[in-house]
Write a structure and sequence with these properties.
single chain; 323 residues; alpha+beta; Rossmann fold; Dna Ligase, domain 1; 3 domains; six-stranded antiparallel β-sheet; four-stranded mixed β-sheet; 9 helices; globular
């Protein structure tokens, strides 16, 4: 079977995507798959390359060369990658692909709209005030707060704000990455993540809960903590009561279903000492590098990344192109 791995892209998560592609490439069994690497450089040109590190800016094609490909594994994180753009292109081309379709990808990328859908499904989500310009800074009663782009991932453009004087600068940074910034209250709970994997039959399997512990010097799980060795540690399975674990897994699968996800997703919660759980975000294309949470959560329930990819590819073939 010929499998194309799409990676790179124009977003601020270009390097994150390359790291995920390395993880995927290392886990795909060469006895089962003929793997083709197709990368988008930072200018948006597409290239077939022999190695991930061969992807450099230069003359390329306007659309990816997927001739002869049976299934696509897209690991393009961020805008123009996991927001439904590439998924729509693959749907038009009629090529089966791993992961969420257009609707779920676009909806989950927009945190503000996703939260509305989640709440309607009975899943609590973190509140936030949407800001589209520096002229409409909200009045904040209690600090600290978090400011983040509405449509971005990997904590790119996100800031913790401890004083009123720092709010404007943090919003300006967030607006560099999206047209909408979210200002959210501090949540003092632990970050507990749940991965969801969809089997070829359609059944949903929740991974082990994972607690994120940012390393020394990190005030939150920021970009550096996510992608620097030693920047954070993961407790997996997280030491939770069986009842709390089951409740979080139920909420995660409910969020997966509410957003019409497909294949895989990672649901990130903040859980307070009282057990109250609020979704921070749903990631429809979680990182698949050796440092990423999703492979760790699945490994803890007996599914290594090779098995996860086999499952996702088979699911993509069962579903076929999105009609």
């Amino acid at each position: 079977m010929r499998v194309a791995v799409l990676f790179g892209g124009q977003s601020s998560e270009h390097e994150v995507s390359c790291a995920s592609a390395r993880g995927v490439l290392g886990a795909l069994d060469p006895a089962k798959y003929d793997v083709v690497l197709v990368g988008a450089d930072r200018a948006g040109a597409w290239h077939r390359v022999a190695r991930i590190d061969d992807l450099v800016a230069g003359p390329g094609s306007r659309v990816p060369d997927l001739e002869g490909v049976d299934v696509v594994v897209p690991v393009l994180h961020g805008l123009n990658g996991e927001d439904g753009s590439v998924q729509g292109l693959l749907q038009l081309l009629g090529i089966p692909f791993v992961g969420c379709g257009v609707l779920a990808s676009a909806l989950a990328m927009d945190k503000q709209l996703a939260n509305i859908v989640l709440r309607s499904a009975g899943v609590d989500a973190i509140d936030g005030v949407a800001v589209t310009s520096l002229a409409e800074l909200p009045t904040v009663q209690t600090y600290p707060v978090f400011v983040k782009p509405n449509r971005a991932g990997s904590s790119v453009g996100a800031s913790r704000v401890d004083t009123p004087s720092a709010l404007e600068a943090a919003v300006a940074v967030a607006l560099e990455h999206d047209s909408v910034a979210l200002v959210q209250p501090l949540n003092t709970g632990d970050e507990i993540d749940i991965g969801v994997l969809q089997l070829p039959s359609g059944e949903l399997v929740a991974g082990a809960p994972l607690r994120v512990r940012p390393g020394a010097g990190s005030t939150f799980f920021d970009f550096a903590a996510k992608y620097t060795a030693g920047g954070a540690t993961f407790e997996v399975p997280a030491a939770l009561t069986p009842e709390l674990t089951e409740r979080l897994q139920t909420l995660a699968t409910r969020a997966f279903t509410a957003l019409r996800c497909e294949g895989l997703a990672r649901v990130d919660f903040f859980v307070g000492v009282d057990g109250a759980a609020h979704v921070n975000e749903v990631n429809t294309l979680p990182g698949l590098s050796t440092l990423s949470q999703f492979p760790n959560m699945m490994r803890a329930v007996g599914r290594d990344l090779s098995d996860v990819l086999d499952t996702l590819i088979e699911r993509a073939r069962v579903v076929g192109s999105r009609a």
